[in-house]
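Summary for the steering committee. One of the milestones for this cycle was to obtain a three-dimensional model of the protein with adenosine-5'-diphosphate bound, which we needed before selecting residues for the alanine scan. The sequence and ligand used are listed below.
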Amino acid sequence: MQDPIQSTHIPRMNSFRGNVTTKTVQGKNPNSLFTPHHSLLTLPPMPATNETESMRSALRRYFGHDSFRPLQEEIITASLSGDDVFALLPTGGGKSLCYQLPAILEDGLTVVVSPLIALMKDQVDGLEANGIRATYLNSSLNKTEARKRYAKLFAGEYTILYVAPERLMLSGFLDDLKQWNVTRFAVDEAHCISEWGHDFRPEYRQLSNLRRLFPELPFMALTATATERVRDDILAQLQLKNAKTFVASFNRPNLDYCVETKQAVFQQILRYIQSKPFESGIVYCYSRKATETLADKLRQSGVEALPYHAGMTPLKRAENQEAFIRDEIKVICATIAFGMGIDKPNVRYVIHQDLPKNIEGYYQETGRAGRDGLPSDCILFFSPGDVAKQLQFISDKSNPKERDVATTQLRQMVHYAESSECRRKVLMGYFSEDWPHESCSNCDNCRNPKQCFDGTLPAQKFMSCIFRVNQASGFGVGINHIVDVLLGSKNEKVLKWGHDRLSTYNIGQEYRRPEWQAFGRELIRNGYIEQLTEKHSILELTSKGKSALRERSPITLTQPSISKKSTQPRRSSDTGGIDCNEALFATLRTLRKELAAEQGVPPYIVFSDVTLREMARDFPIDADQMSDISGVGMAKLEKYGNVFIEAITEFLDANPDAGIDDLQPSV
Ligand code: ADP
Ligand code: ZN
């Protein structure tokens, strides 16, 4: 058989670079999505050395990939040259490969510290499926099994070892490590070391001992979440020496962001899910109860769905999670307890049925979609009622500082939901990253820019109502009270305070309550009005607002979209971004599921969706062609090549025109 590495002549799309809007940093390298945005490092183009050659051929041989994702190559090169490395890549950026490839290219053992015990088995299964000798040690192993693995470690039989941080504290473990010819340490989820992070693990503090004991070895710290403060903490705690820092953009180009007005939310969700009958997705809900109700209703409508929340028994939780990962169910309805450590690459949509509490959480949760780089949807259902509900919860908090933080975070979230700007721009702005493009063409606001109108009149009404109330009463009120006055409400407060006698009373009949509320929030976002957190969210005109009121300056507002609705499938995520023969794709998917079940591994360990779609597009019918498919490395070619070739051949026999028709544009 020809060496598969030799034959890579068929042009192939790199899914991560396909359908992408690029981020340009200082005019450099417009094709790189993950350009470092903190110019900590200016990276020269990789020279074509022997090292790059061997990196690329190992990438092809073991993982079946043709090209590196942004920053992977630079990170790997730095680690191979003995530098300490700190890598901040978004979810799906391909962090694992950054330590797996150096491990393969060097003799000795790479030790990976990871807090995600539940994932270790899958990771090791994945490596073994690619022909890489890997193992893990954690509390889930019985004594006999652990002993067997120790023996092999002493015999130098592994390339990669995954350990949980608590293992490092076990007596004798660090001494054992000394005898295992360790060549590199990789600390995954490195933010866990920091108290300032969202997921602090005290056991991670032990890691500073490692550096003391192995001063000469290169360390790698990898994470998808780190603010400036957490980053400094990681560098300090791990005592990284002159670490080369690589920070990728937080942009996830394959994710499509969209906000829908929440109306009959179950119907909206059901319609969407039914439009993607073969895809998996997560629906996040605010409460435990809601996850169960939604899962029940979905099942009654014929969708395979299960709930997941922290109130379930650990066993039930693990079962439902497992069923989702193994493609036995399509949809998991979950609280935010779900997700950390979910490695499923083919989550095609993440829906938020209720408003998340803050943008950081929203970014993390939506980040679980599309790790494989294929187009995936992030849909948020928004209603002002959710805001009121959450404000109520917040006002129940006893600590005033906490209340303020929560209110500010909620306001940023509402801003995201109501903004008519590019969703990407808002999200990335939250992480202090600039999005320099006019349109991303991959969010609802860029696809269908919101209609604006000359809102000078309603803006004037709203602002003068604030002014009048303040003037008459000497105190400020919240947004709802202003709307009450505009709509001529006769509620107790309006009457008690005599606001029914103001000139602005009952002058707003042309709009409904939610519309006035939306105008109010837009005027806040645009700096005409200020909302004071510490004083029960009362409204005050800013100097910009006062002068606009005085000078009658024109103000543009967003056309209310309260009554508009659309939950239509949007774009090419139906084809996963790779046009292929859908019938063959379905056949191959079934085959994958059977093989995975036989071997007791999740389907994606066998092949990813990207790989199956490429097969259903390119119809490989011999080993040579098969090895050209992305994700088919040597080991998988040997193990599964024939089975899949057979399935494809059979399919072509039964559908002789398939290959021709499907790949031609329809006329
Ligand atoms: P992260 O840990 O950064 O979220 P992973 O390491 O789990 O990301 O990788 C996400 C997905 O991307 C996996 O399915 C992996 O196989 C795939 N992947 C990683 N590197 C590449 C590459 N260079 N080319 C194609 N696919 C890749
Ligand atoms: Zn956009």
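Key point for the committee: DSSP finds 27 helices and 17 strands in the chain.
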